[in-house]
Each structure stands twice: as structure tokens, then as C-alpha cells.
Amino acid sequence: MRNSIVLLCVFFLGCQSDKKWAFDKKIMLPEETRPLGMALVDEGLWVSDPDNNQVLRIDESGSVLETISNLFRPMHIEANHNKLFIPNFSNDTISVYANGKSESLFVEAEFDAPSGLSVQEGLIAFADFYNHRVLLSKNGDVTQIGAEGRTDGLLFYPTDLKIYGDKIVVADAYNNRVQIFSLDGAFVKVIGWQEEIRVATGLDVFEDLIYVSDYYGNRVLIYDLEGTLINILEGQFNKPTDVLVHSDKMYVANYGENSISIFELF
Q1: Phi then psi dihedrals of residue 51, to 5 deg
Q2: What domains does the chain contain, in order, with CATH numbers?
């Protein structure tokens, strides 16, 4: 039975920690906002709002502190070294925002709807949605991972990704799964097919755990790097599109309404 404390449908399958994720609160955004991607900086939480072609910086009350406008359906954003990287889905460009100014990032490749990116020590990985591939860019050189398909190592509308150590973890959205590749493009593992994910829209990787948003399933699934299911969180989501974990907090973007769900680890 649900109560005001909100006992989530959380299932622990072999978790090594005694801590559990518990729902804390929802941040309500301006009514017209449809949050999709998130990035955390010292000055607040950046939230992409593709339906309104903007990115908002908010505090934990939901107050808007800053707005980047005149974008082109911004998707899964990334913060790195005081820069905000913004994939513009509808005009195939990447914007980089810093110190109140925005400029375009040149990449020696032709995107068809970039939907997500990840930055690590000079290496940038891009989810290239309609081309069904991941692109890696470093020092001007671009390599490709994946191609259109349904079998292991192939992608079908990838939406988000994270570089983690020597691996790339990809939200293979419309294959309803997550895939892991090495940085040289070799297929490593498929995750999530047994849980019948209904569009894997976003993900994060934090302290060797993979957090996946299940858009139509209205849940967040948590796996270890071997693909073992650790947790399933349900009950506080409305078409979740992204997960962001930092320290003992988890943020989940609810595209189906104007809100961000926050969980804390206790």
C-alpha cells in the first residue's frame, strides 16, 4: 500500500550495499516545460527542454536561474570543465556554452539528429540518432561504432551514451536495451533485454552502476557493469527520459510532465 512516505516498488537483487534509494521530492518546472536531458554544475541543474528549443538552469526549488534559447531541439546535454555541450537534434549541430556565450563545435562528420554526447579527457562520443551509430572524436579524428540493426553490436536509434573508463555505454533506445562497447568499437555486452525495457531513452553510469530510464515502462533500472539487475525503481515517473546520479542523489527527468524526480540514498 502506498503512503505519504512513498514506498517505491524497489527490488534489490543481490545489492552489496545496505543503502537504498528513496523518493525525496519532485521539482516542478514552468508548466510548458518538457524536460529531456540533464547536466549538473556547481551553479545548479541544467535541463534541456526540446519542445521549447531551450536549456534551463534551475535550483532545487525549480526556479529558473538562466535560460539558453534559440536552440534546435536540444537533447541529452553534458557538462564538462565549466562547459555545457548541447546536441541540437533538428539542425545537426553541437553547441558549446560557457561564460554566457555559445559557439558551435566543429566535428569532422555529418550528423543526422545528434541526440546525446559524452566528454572525457579530449574524447567526445556522440549518439547519431537517424544514422544508427555512435561517433568518437579525438584530436580531429572520427571513428564509427555500430550500424543499423537489431543484433548484438548493431544499433536502432541510439539516444544517449556515457564514456566510462575504457568502455562506452549506449542507450540503444528502440532496440529496448543498453549496449557496452570498448573504445576501439568492439562489442562487449547487451544489457536489459530480459527486463523488457520499452524504449531505453537515457542513462548514467556512476560508481560502477548503470542507471537506465525506461520511457514507456515509467521506471528506472539499475545494473552493474556485468549486466546483473540490481534495482528497479517505479512509482514516481512520467515518461522518464534521463537519469543523472551524483553522490547520494539521483535526478530523473519526466518528459511526460514538467518535473524532475529526486531520490536520495539512505
Answers
A1: -65, -25
A2: 21-265 (2.120.10.30)
